[in-house]
Design a protein that fits this description.
single chain; alpha/beta; Rossmann fold; Hypothetical Protein Yjia, Chain: A,domain 2; 5-stranded antiparallel beta sheet; 12 helices; 12 strands; about 30% helix; binds guanosine-5'-triphosphate
Length: about 350
Amino acid sequence: MSVTSPVTNLGKIPATIITGFLGAGKTTLLRHVLEHAGGRRIAVIVNEFGALGIDGDTLRACGITGCDDEDIVELANGCLCCTVADDFVPTMEALISRPNPPEHIVIETSGLALPKPLLKAFNWPSVRARLTVDGVIAVVDAPAVHAGRFADDPEDVARQRAADPSLDHDNPLAEVYEDQLMSADLVVLNKTDLLTTAEVDALAVQIAGIIPRAVKLVRTTEGRLDPAVLLGLGSAAEDDLAARPSHHDAMDGEHEHDDFDSFVVPIGAQASAEALVARLAAVTEAHDVLRMKGFAVVEGKSMRLAVQGVGTRFRQQFDRAWKPGEPRAGSIVVIGRQGLDRTAIAAAINDATGAV
Ligand SMILES: Nc1nc2c(ncn2[C@@H]2O[C@H](COP(=O)(O)OP(=O)(O)OP(=O)(O)O)[C@@H](O)[C@H]2O)c(=O)[nH]1
């Protein structure tokens, strides 16, 4: 199957931005795109909030034919929206200056990144001359929205607004979520397997109410969408910034993700995958962790265990063999609101007795 680009911005390389909150399913969707790219040369830039490049590693481990390691560029440890000048622009310049430049670039932003500063970077002269934003895709974790994870506590907002009338939200997750939606050309309502059709219908209406433009919304599970739906939107979003309002516009350089914290916990060899995941889920519950992901060594197994947690929902799989010479060491990235008790969380993750 082939994916076509629009004729607008002729000669420019199209770039798709995939945004969406922590754990919404961005990497899963991207992996599906790469698996169904039909031979098209796609370069990927993955940005993560945590200091370990888990997403890049996950994509490399998938063994997609035609997807070379050099086509996956990681910008770890920071949010693209803060490191646009230092990291993003030079990376894009290097990609498009290759002797054999990519036909399409897909950028997976960190779950906490605000897309607007990234969109603005497409107006830097060196970038604008060769690239155009084909589209911004916002991946939404349908069950997380349904559970109210991005909602404000109305009483809390009323109380805080009494002191500060300019207050918008009390929940920093709400601001990141809304910013990501408001920048979108296409909304992907993912993880619909975990809700009823009526619940998904209600979410679609709720989301349409947040976005001030008519934006297409598609529903899916495991990001299983035809790349022809995702690539080739031809939005030239860099010319259309005013239509994509952001909380950040009024924030004068402050970033919502200052409200979040991330750290890495090294873990020893595990007696069992199930016991590890049960322990991680208990720690998540006890400490209100938003996201965990990482790799582990399991005794007696030649394969690496990949672990993914979104809230208390965990998945694990042996994703590939440990490579010769690769240190057999496990680590888990933990992401949550500021104020996480790092010492207690690290101790509980490593406590085989199960105390949290
Ligand atoms: N039940 C269910 N789980 C899903 C679906 N899509 C993705 N997942 C799982 O959700 C978890 C997070 O998926 P990722 O694709 O890593 O999410 P992400 O948005 O890239 O995460 P960050 O990069 O950390 O923000 C993984 O365990 C996925 O297997 C889905 O449609 N249904």
